[in-house]
Design a protein that fits this description.
heterodimer, A: alpha/beta, Rossmann fold, 8 helices, 4 strands, 40% helix, 10% strand, elongated, B: alpha/beta, Beta Polymerase, domain 2, 5-stranded mixed sheet, two-stranded parallel ribbon, 4 helices, 9 strands, 20% helix
Chain lengths: 180, 192
């Protein structure tokens, strides 16, 4: 296969050559593996289930608004239905009273699902070391990404989303088949 | 009419039940000797003196003293702008007061919160149940003998609690410290 290497000038061919693709020979077809393709589809359309409980929800709304636009990462709609979402963003203080509801909503999400614990309260209980606050949502849910901050800036949440996308891209396919 | 005049009118009507109004920082506080009469006093305050807004009902735990509970009512007249504070004491063996929901309906939730957090019951309350914690939670969290981190409980299908790790004690700041290092929230003993 011919590989074009040009120095100093960015050409279209240069990127395709990194995956061994030459459009002159193969046309508009990319050959890849199923798990790479599936993970690519999944990571670029992670629809969030916003579990906005407290102040972090405001920053979550800000991330969804136009300046920090979460939909350019594929999280086009904040699906408030757990059946239609992929990632639950727990944004805010989880009290013990609310914990059973959060767990129930997480159980209603369909596989594959991920969880982002946004902010200090969702990660570890935050500044509330008290009788009423669950010390971290990871006591009831498996969390994939933690975001520090009180509240974290929208850019921090987008960085967490990118880390989650990286995690989703490298998820081994057969494991998830067995899980589902 | 200023709040002081209204407090004096209350004292004139109820006599020895009401203490001398104490004035501090521009606020009037009166003590009620018998907690059972709170309904009559509040009804008079609303009907005759124009205190048509109950701002708050609060409670104190005087742990180690008798009577243990102090219940504080904050009244306000929206037309006149006058504010009044009423305090009553309740002993721990009794732990009960008549409700004032028939005077101001907002007392409903305030009294439910006091019941939830302190365990003081209100006789005649239309719906006295927990409002912040859940039904069946066995403790009263804002009492002085309840630890800040909480105690472990478990009610299946409803809620559970665990003790929060306090790492040696509540982290408090020293307000008015000269820089941020001094003001940093940390475990403080009396010397620091």
């Amino acid at each position: 296969m011919l590989v074009w290497r040009t120095f100093g000038v960015r050409r279209f061919m240069q990127t395709w050559s990194e995956i061994g693709y030459d459009s002159k020979i193969e046309g508009d077809v990319i050959v890849t593996r199923i798990d790479a393709a599936l993970n690519w589809f999944r990571k670029n359309s992670l629809w969030p289930m916003p579990m906005g409980l407290a102040c972090c929800a405001i920053e979550l709304m800000a991330a969804g608004a136009s300046r920090f636009d979460i939909s350019r990462f594929g999280s086009e709609v904040m699906r408030f239905s757990p059946r239609q979402s992929d990632v639950m963003i727990v944004a805010g203080t989880v009290t013990y009273k609310m914990a059973t509801a959060v767990k129930r909503i997480y159980d209603q999400m369909s596989e594959p699902k991920w969880v982002i614990a946004m902010g200090a309260c969702a990660s570890t209980g935050g500044m509330y070391r008290s009788y009423a606050v669950l010390q971290g949502v990871d006591r009831i849910l498996p969390v994939d990404v933690y975001v520090a901050g009180c509240p974290p800036r929208p850019e921090a949440l987008l960085d967490a989303l990118m880390k989650l996308q990286n995690k989703v891209q490298h998820e081994p396919f057969l494991e998830t088949l067995k899980k589902a | 009419m200023t709040a002081l005049e209204q407090a004096n009118q209350l004292k004139a009507k109820f006599g020895d039940l009401i203490s001398e109004p104490a004035v501090a920082h521009g606020e009037i506080t009166i003590h009620l000797a018998d907690a059972e009469k709170i309904g009559d006093v509040c009804a008079f305050a609303k009907a005759e003196l124009g205190f048509n807004y109950l701002v708050d009902i609060s409670s104190l735990d005087n742990y180690g003293e008798d009577p243990r509970w102090t219940v504080v009512y904050h009244l306000r007249g929206l037309a006149s702008g006058c504010e009044l504070r009423l305090k009553t004491n309740v002993s721990e063996e009794k732990s009960e007061l008549p409700t004032i929901t028939n005077v101001w309906r907002t007392a409903d939730w305030h009294e439910r919160e006091i019941y939830d957090m302190m365990g003081i019951r209100f006789r005649g309350h239309p719906d006295l149940r927990r409002i912040l914690m859940w039904e069946g939670y066995p403790y009263f969290p804002l009492r002085k003998d309840f630890p800040l981190g909480g105690k472990p409980t478990q009610i299946p299908e409803v809620a559970f609690t665990q003790t929060a790790p306090l790492e040696g004690g509540p982290f408090v700041t020293a307000p008015g410290g000269k820089d941020a290092v001094e003001r940093e929230p940390r475990v403080r003993t009396p010397e620091n």
